[in-house]
């Protein structure tokens, strides 16, 4: 291979640490290859592949001067479990022109397509440059509304478009001014029909040589380059988009050879994929090879996201703790939940973890997670905590009740506390021999006598409300303690934080007898 056109046709991002080594792969040449150039595979749904080939232009018999082969067209075939591509046929006469058409990428919903072509639109060859075009795909599979992208130019080439998983970013190759080498990798934001300004992926990905054929798998970037240090020709490299790897990782043999190896793609569910090469032993100028990744990708990572909820209400729990442990039981990270009860952990692929959910007054929860090899996979889970009925605080057994709240300086119970008081009545009926005392406490601020009287009124109000809900008046009493039983050092004239004062402004349902 290494036709001038293909080099122009192909490009994007990040570096790799010296201590990291590539996964191992098994590689096979496809029976579907022809004596001509076959390269640049793209997944089309789960069971089909689109690729570029000069095996015979369906529009014209003209040949390209660059290699005396027919101009490139797009072809489609069925993917078999063993990686072979069968039932190959021209993809679409709507896009296959009299000149070069190659290297496509589809939106996640398969309603839009980006492809590389000579500057050929509406039947006219505008110039010899390579450009990226966009089209919509109707329900019958027809390509319509062809448009050239706004950052194309007659003064330079753009090619090999690749969308990320959610279709919000388009990666491509270009030799536009301002790059680091012959062709560099770029990224541009996509918002429906609007595009941002192309951004060069920087010198951790790009070099003074040629970089092209980008492919995005989660946050891992694969691309080809003829930079120094490779096996010869163009080699396939991988790196991370978060720039955590300082030097791209060479995939080594058998993925790379002394010839040109390009157009890497992988299905991260099956760990199978394709690349293209003009290595010796092939059937044509460029051949498509299938591969299977046999070991874990060292830069593959995943996330675990979830929410901690109450078993009874189903509502998120605030101030609960989600904790991540490795397979040896060592704690990696602990997260305290906010109002939404959510948490997020970063995980490595192919490892075992344990995630626990805890909160005072609830039974603990734990979940074992075995991560697969799928880069960027989100292990979603819901942690359901079952609330305890009783807790021990300061050697006293109490009902596990959220503190009852009252209006400021009043004995009136706030509406948000009435569900908790209903829970008290349910527990009293569940345990009919149980006797409890409701205690109301204040902090040390304010007069001692005032605080005592306020809590006494609150205790009476609470007991009367519980009786109105059906509580046995013989089984419950109430007492106001004022500031006589402080839970910490915050006595009169002692400077304390608001959180420390809050520890003293408490209500307690103490179990006297069961």
> Which CATH C-level class of the largest domain is it?
Mainly Beta
- Topology, number of strands: 35
Net shape:
elongated
Structural class: mainly beta
**How far apart, in Å, are the first and last alpha carbons?**
85 Å
Give the biggest sheet: 5 strands, antiparallel
Question: Residue share in helices?
Answer: under 10%
**Total of helices:** 4
Q: From the alpha carbons, calculate the radius of gyration and give it in angstroms.
A: 33 Å
- CATH fold-level topology of the largest domain: Tachylectin-2, Chain A
Low-confidence stretches: 1-18, 58-70, 96-100, 120-126
Query: What is the beta-strand fraction?
Result: 35-45%
Mean pLDDT: 88
Structure in words:
By secondary structure, the chain is mainly β. It folds into three domains: 4-293, Tachylectin-2, Chain A (5 Propeller), CATH 2.115.10; 301-385, Immunoglobulin-like; 390-513, OmpA-like domain (60s Ribosomal Protein L30, Chain: A). 9% of the residues lie in helices and 42% in strands. The chain has four helices and 35 strands. It has helices spanning 4-9, 418-430, 448-468, 498-504; strands spanning 25-29, 38-44, 48-53, 63-64, 69-70, 73-79, 85-90, 101-106, 112-121, 124-137, 143-148, 158-163, 169-174, 184-191, 194-195, 199-200, 211-217, 220-225, 235-240, 249-250, 261-267, 272-277, 287-293, 301-310, 321-325, 331-336, 342-348, 352-358, 365-370, 378-385, 390-393, 396-399, 435-441, 476-482, 507-513. The strands form ten sheets. Strands 12, 13, 14, 15 and 16 form a five-stranded antiparallel sheet that branches. Strand 19 (235-240) and strand 20 form a beta hairpin. Helix 2 (418-430) packs across helix 3. It starts with a helix and ends with a strand. Residues 1-18, 58-70, 96-100 and 120-126 have low confidence and may be disordered.
């Amino acid at each position: 291979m290494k036709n001038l056109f293909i080099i122009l046709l192909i490009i994007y991002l990040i570096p790799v640490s010296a201590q990291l080594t590539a996964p191992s792969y098994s590689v096979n040449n496809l029976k579907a290859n022809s004596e001509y150039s076959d390269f640049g595979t793209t997944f089309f749904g789960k069971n089909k592949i689109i690729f570029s080939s000069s095996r015979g232009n369906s529009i014209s018999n003209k040949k390209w001067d660059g290699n005396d082969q027919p101009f490139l067209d797009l072809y489609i075939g069925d993917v078999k479990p063993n990686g072979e591509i069968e039932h190959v046929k021209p993809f679409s006469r709507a896009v296959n022109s009299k000149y070069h058409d190659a290297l496509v990428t589809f939106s996640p919903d398969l309603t839009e397509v980006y492809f590389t072509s000579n500057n050929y639109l509406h039947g006219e060859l505008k110039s010899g440059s390579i450009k990226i075009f966009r089209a919509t795909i109707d329900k019958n599979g027809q390509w319509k509304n062809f448009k050239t992208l706004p950052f194309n130019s007659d003064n330079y080439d753009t090619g090999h478009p690749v969308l990320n998983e959610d279709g919000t970013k388009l990666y491509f190759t270009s030799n536009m001014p301002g790059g680091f080498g012959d062709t560099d990798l770029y990224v541009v934001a996509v918002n429906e029909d609007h595009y941002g300004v192309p951004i060069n992926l920087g010198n951790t990905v790009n070099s003074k040589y040629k970089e092209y054929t980008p492919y995005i798998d989660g946050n891992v970037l694969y691309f080809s380059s003829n930079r120094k240090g490779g096996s010869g020709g163009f080699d396939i490299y991988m790196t991370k988009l978060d720039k955590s790897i300082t030097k791209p990782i060479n995939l080594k043999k058998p993925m790379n050879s002394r010839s040109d190896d390009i157009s890497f793609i992988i299905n991260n569910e099956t760990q199978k994929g394709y690349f293209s090469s003009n290595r010796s032993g092939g059937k044509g100028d460029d051949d498509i090879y299938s591969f299977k990744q046999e070991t874990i990708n060292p830069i593959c990572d995943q996330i675990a996201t979830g929410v901690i909820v109450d078993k009874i209400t189903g509502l998120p729990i605030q101030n609960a703790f989600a904790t991540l442990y490795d397979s040896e039981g060592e704690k990696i990270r602990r997260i305290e939940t906010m109002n939404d009860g959510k948490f997020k952990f970063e995980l490595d692929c192919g490892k075992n973890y344990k995630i626990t959910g805890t909160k005072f007054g609830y039974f603990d929860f734990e979940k074992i997670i075995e991560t697969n090899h799928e880069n960027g996979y989100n292990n979603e889970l819901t942690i359901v905590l079952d609330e305890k009925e009783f807790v021990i605080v300061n050697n006293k057994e109490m009902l596990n009740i959220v503190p009852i709240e009252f209006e400021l300086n009043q004995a009136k119970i706030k509406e948000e506390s009435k569900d908790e008081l209903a829970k008290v009545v349910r527990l009293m009926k569940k345990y009919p021999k149980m006797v409890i005392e409701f205690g109301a406490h204040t902090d040390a601020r304010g007069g001692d006598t005032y605080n005592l009287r306020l809590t006494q009124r609150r205790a009476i109000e609470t007991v009367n409300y519980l009786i109105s809900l059906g509580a046995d008046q013989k089984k419950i009493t109430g007492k106001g303690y004022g500031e006589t039983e402080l839970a910490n050092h915050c006595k009169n004239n002692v400077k304390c934080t608001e959180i420390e004062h809050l520890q003293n402004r408490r209500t307690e349902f103490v179990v006297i007898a069961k």
